[in-house]
Design goal:
- With 43 residues, this protein is mainly β.
- It contains no helices and 2 strands.
- Strands 1-2 form a two-stranded antiparallel ribbon.
C-alpha cells in the first residue's frame, strides 16, 4: 500500500492511443492516472 508522498513503483501501461508509456519516462512531470470501470466505456 502506498501512502501520500510515497514514490510510485515503476510500471508501463498502454495509452488510449495504443502507445506504451512508462512511468519512469515521465519522471519530473505531473502525472494523472485515471481509472474507470470497463463497463462505463463506449463500445
Amino acid at each position: 500500500m502506498l501512502n501520500a508522498g510515497d514514490t510510485a513503483p515503476s510500471f508501463r501501461l498502454t495509452s488510449h492511443e495504443g502507445k506504451t508509456v512508462a512511468l519512469d519516462d515521465l519522471r519530473g512531470k505531473k502525472v494523472l492516472l485515471w481509472f474507470y470501470p470497463k463497463a462505463d466505456t463506449p463500445g
